[in-house]
Automatic annotation (TrEMBL):
<dbReference type="Pfam" id="PF07494">
    <property type="entry name" value="Reg_prop"/>
</dbReference>
<dbReference type="InterPro" id="IPR011047">
    <property type="entry name" value="Quinoprotein_ADH-like_sf"/>
</dbReference>
<keyword id="KW-0597">Phosphoprotein</keyword>
<dbReference type="GO" id="GO:0000155">
    <property type="term" value="F:phosphorelay sensor kinase activity"/>
</dbReference>
<protein>
    <recommendedName>
        <fullName>Hybrid sensor histidine kinase/response regulator</fullName>
    </recommendedName>
</protein>
<dbReference type="InterPro" id="IPR011110">
    <property type="entry name" value="Reg_prop"/>
</dbReference>
<dbReference type="InterPro" id="IPR015943">
    <property type="entry name" value="WD40/YVTN_repeat-like_dom_sf"/>
</dbReference>
Length: 656
């Protein structure tokens, strides 16, 4: 028994020694926490950037990402890049906004103000010379501070007041590189000659320099504030930490890279952009490195380890680099889904041109390859084509409820009824006009008659008697036969979008009027494919090439909206109001956009948010359960306005 106990004790000690040896063998630099697998996408000059050197990144209140490059100013909306040629050849160091109109841009050739409504730019005179502007900062109260190579300028009462730190404007202390706001009217500024504390009310200032090493040059390149500590990037000595309460510096040994180009605070972490070692993530509590993000041979990695600028927003990270362009993590989400009925039907990869979701869950889906009728309760799916039914065309343009059945419009093949109870198809009527041609849906007028758009004019159909009239270029003032869209507004007016103009039917005179828009608006309403009226009685006319024209209730104010404003694309296929939150959804040929005008907010959704394809078609519907449905080139897309908004609504860009 004694020998057995002795052997067991030795075995226990052996295992203990083994574990200690393993722990000692492990590298001490093992990250304390793991980042989730970050997938980066990269855009470069090939995608429209003015330059592959990104000096600064700024997200405005509308959700646009602005990029200051070595030779210009770019705007990125998540899909497209727009370069502002007015800034061509200028090095952009800093960007900020004071309101929804003006963007202030610090460059190597002075301070510029961009009017985002008109794209007009103005050089702002700060001093007698065109100063190099390294930092533009807007305080919590909206005050603009401009850090230059020759001192600080504060904008108030439409003029700039100059502040020098020391009498010599050319001193290294007046070469300002960064600004953050502290407490009680205090601002902290980095310079090539030290760290500056400045009280904007009293005008008092104090310059702090690091004295721990005589070889240290107090050239601070950037800074961020977290709680009561300032984290300072240097131009050769890594990162320093300044304790505001103790007014004392300390070195952060975890950041060994000499030149720090960008620092941001993320929760209790400091993210450090280095010039050669990627991004180092430091715990503010312990001072230890938690993780790193580096360039590798992996195609999904950041494009360069020379990180010049950083922006972290919720689950998105933007990384501006030297010569590599912009790397960013697209926001992966499940806000949207593609309709499927497990084991029986999946709309994914179907080009959904038309659809209707009934109150009892039945779905009628029109595609370029025929018509689908889905009854989940009966577990029944039917697919209609010209080969197995009376359909004369497989391209379905419209699906609308009609009494208890569904009215089906096709491209070149006539107008049909899909009978709910039997699932059989028939022509609306046996008249030849309904058995050929293209049909694009209908609207009900104040007399409960259906106005049906077609390639041969508009049909006014009495669904109770089956009688109808047709208006076209031969017998009426409707001079264009191709009617793409219709809208009966709250004032009883009937609007028709055609292949040449927008018409309004005057019920009093019985004529179609095409002169309702002023001359400057007419060019943008030549091919209106969708017309929408919002709760404020504004009318929105969506052209397939020219963006959107918004008209107020009194028809006196006209606004033309394009990609130069916030649209991802000028082909807007539909607009609908969010049933939960009141904003507007724009379905375009380049993604989905949500805007809330009163908050000056917009957000563009892409493939990474769950939409299957960028190209949307015209049909849109809101069902009783507050689900929004869209027809997309790659499926029937749905969005739960109640569930999804808990995520979308909190992830605001100040929410673009």
């Amino acid at each position: 028994m004694k020998n057995a106990f002795y052997m067991e004790g030795n075995l226990w000690l052996y295992r203990l020694y083994l574990w200690v040896a393993i722990l000692l063998w492990l590298p001490v630099s093992l990250p304390a926490v793991d980042l989730p697998n970050l997938t980066f996408r990269t855009i470069t000059i090939s995608d429209g950037l003015s330059n592959n050197i990104i000096n600064t990144i700024y997200k405005d209140k509308r959700g646009f990402t602005w990029l200051g490059t070595q030779t210009g100013l770019d705007r990125f909306d998540g899909i497209n890049v727009k370069s502002f040629l007015q800034f061509s050849g200028r090095t952009i160091f800093s960007i900020a906004e004071t309101d929804s109109v003006y963007l202030w841009v610090g460059t190597d050739k002075g301070l510029w103000r961009l009017d985002r409504k008109t794209d007009q730019v103005k050089l702002v005179t700060l001093d007698t010379k065109s100063l190099e502007v390294r930092s533009v900062f807007v305080s919590q109260t909206g005050r603009l501070l401009v850090g230059t190579t020759h001192g600080l300028f504060i904008y108030q009462e439409n003029t700039f007041r100059k502040v020098l730190f020391g009498s010599n404007a050319l001193s290294s202390t007046n070469f300002l590189t960064g600004i953050v706001e502290g407490h009680k009217d205090t601002f902290w500024l980095t310079s090539q000659g030290g760290l500056i504390e400045y009280n904007i009310v009293t005008g008092q200032s104090e310059v702090y320099t690091y004295q721990g090493d005589e070889r240290f040059v107090n050239y601070f390149s950037c800074l961020t504030l977290l709680k009561e500590k300032l984290y300072l990037g240097t131009a050769g000595n890594g990162m320093l930490v300044f304790d505001i309460g103790k007014t004392a510096f300390s070195i952060c040994p975890e950041v060994e890279n000499g030149y720090i180009k960008s620092i941001i605070a993320v929760n209790d972490e400091i993210w450090v952009g280095t010039n050669g070692s990627g991004i180092r993530i430091i715990s503010a509590s312990t001072g230890k490195e938690l993780s790193a993000i580096e360039h590798t041979s992996n195609a999904d990695a950041i494009c360069s380890n020379a990180v010049y600028s950083l922006l972290k927003e919720d689950d998105m990270l933007f990384v501006g680099t030297y010569m590599g362009g912009l790397s960013y993590t697209p926001a992966h989400g499940s806000f949207f889904s593609v309709y499927s009925y497990p084991e029986l039907f999946n709309s994914y990869n179907m080009n959904v041109r038309a659809f209707w979701v009934d109150a009892d869950g039945k779905k009628v889906i029109g595609t370029r390859d025929g018509l689908y009728y889905i009854s989940e309760m009966e577990r029944r799916i039917r697919h209609y084509t010209h080969r197995n039914s009376i359909l004369r065309s497989d391209i379905i343009l419209s699906v609308k409820p009609f009494n208890r059945d569904f009215l089906i419009g096709t491209y070149g093949g006539g107008l049909y009824l899909l009978h709910r109870n039997t699932g059989e198809l028939s022509f609306l009527q046996s008249d030849q006009c309904f058995m050929q041609g293209s049909f694009n849906g209908y609207e009900r007028d104040v007399n409960n008659k259906l106005w049906i758009g077609s390639s041969k004019g508009v049909y006014v159909y009495d669904h109770l008697t089956g009688e109808y009239e047709v208006y076209n270029s031969r017998n009426s003032s409707l001079s264009v036969n191709s009617v793409f869209s219709l809208k009966a507004d709250s004032k009883g007016r009937m609007w028709l979008g055609t292949g040449g103009a927008v018409f309004m039917y005057d019920r009093v005179d019985g004529v179609f009027k095409s002169d309702v828009f002023p001359e400057h608006v007419l060019p943008y309403t030549k091919s209106v494919r969708f017309i929408y009226e919002d709760k404020k009685k504004n009318l929105w006319f969506c052209d397939d090439k020219e963006g959107v024209v918004k008209v107020d209730e009194s028809f006196t104010t006209f606004e033309h909206i394009t990609i130069d404003d916030f649209l991802p694309n000028n082909s807007v296929m539909s607009i609908v109001e969010d049933p939960k939150n009141g904003g507007l959804w724009f379905a375009t040929q380049r993604g989905l956009l949500y805007i809330k005008e009163e908050e000056n907010y917009h957000k563009i959704f892409s493939l990474y948010d769950g939409i299957p394809g960028y190209i949307f078609n015209s049909p849109v519907q809101i069902t009783d359960d507050n689900t929004v449905w869209w027809g997309n080139e790659r499926g029937l897309v749905c969005y739960d306005a109640v569930k999804s908004w808990s995520e979308i609504g909190t992830k605001r860009s100040s929410l673009p």
